[in-house]
Amino acid sequence: MRVACVNQDRGIRPGSKKGAAVHVAAMESAFAAAGAQVVAVSDADPKVIDSSLQQLHRREPIDLIYERYALGAFAAGRTARALGIPHVLEVNAPLEEEARRYRANNPIVLDARAERELLRSAARVVVVSSAVADYVRARGAPAQRILLAPNGVDPSRFDRPVDSAVTRVVPRSAVTIGFHGRLRPWHNFGLLVDAFEELVLEGLDVFLLTVGGGPFDAALEPVAGFGRSHHFEWVEHERIGGYVARYDLLALTHDAHAPFYFSPLKLAEAMVSRAVPVVPMLGDLPALVENGREGLVYRPGDRGALVASLRKLVVDRELRERCATAARERALRNTWNGIADRILDGLSEAVG
């Protein structure tokens, strides 16, 4: 099978540090692991996309076009229909709503008719959450062609020892709460800092380890004087496993008042590394983390509930280790390779 993996999003450059670029590269690797010959086509110009796909198909027939959807990008879908090639569309967020909320200064003019045709004609529409499934269904995607596939993980990148840079700064005895990625407003990171401060003031042996880009220095200032936290600037994804390996806990603190449609990459990566997740009762998170088995679920935005959940895991080592084992087992059931297999296995049925 020959698979063309298409990216028309100008904000996702191949090899960039963004989580979206990690996702794109992961799916390309997963299709290759499934035995497919993968060709990557990345360009924001619809004429380049069409020309590239046409030339590739003439040279050697393409069996599948797999595309990460970018808002208003219709070229790959139209080329797929013209050539009679199955088109699988991956949708990672309610893109129009997101653009209106976070990029209000850039007027959004969407061809709703073209988007509806794109979604209706796709052999599969792969979505990362139930909220995104609702979004594409409302815009024309047939319910029977929607495949819910939360973001996966490549275990081989996370089965590694703790990086020496981490062992030098994190006390051996400390229960470590981790966070990695680019810091965004919707992460509501201040809630985690407040909860961590309370745990330290209680005298618990905890440490806050953060890795990534964004305003971490300002965010961590309230706890900097404790000497119980450390921030590493951005680490390449090939190396991040050695940092996540030191996490004992991962706490997500997304804003309770903002729409939640995410499937956090950091969640799967931490779970496969045996970090116990503490997540708010938002979106699909309670379905991804079984409360009391794979981690703990708390009321979103509730500082007291977050502190209580973290405290419980810090002081109860047996519970922490039991959840860590279950969290890894759960993550191993949702790898990128497994997602690619599901897409390929169900393609003939979806087309039919």
Short description:
By secondary structure, this protein is an alpha/beta fold. It contains 15 helices and 12 strands.
List the helices and strands and how they pair.
Layout lengths: L1 E6 L11 H15 L3 E6 L3 H14 L4 E5 L6 H9 L3 E5 L3 H8 L9 H10 L2 E4 L2 H9 L7 E3 L15 H4 L7 E6 L8 H13 L4 E6 L4 H5 L8 E4 L8 H4 L4 E3 L13 H8 L3 E5 L4 H4 L7 E3 L4 H13 L1 H16 L3 H16 L1
Parallel strand pairs: 1-2, 1-3, 3-4, 4-5, 5-6, 7-8, 7-10, 8-9, 10-11, 11-12
Fold and architecture overview:
This protein is of the alpha/beta class. The protein has two domains: 168 residues, 3-Layer(aba) Sandwich (Rossmann fold); 177 residues, 3-Layer(aba) Sandwich (Rossmann fold). Helix content is 42%, strand content 16%. It has 15 helices and twelve strands. It has a six-stranded parallel sheet with strand order 2-1-3-4-5-6, with helices on both faces. Strand 7, helix 8 and strand 8 form a beta-alpha-beta unit. Helix 11 packs across helix 14. It is elongated, with a radius of gyration of 21 Å. The model has no long low-confidence stretch (mean pLDDT 94).
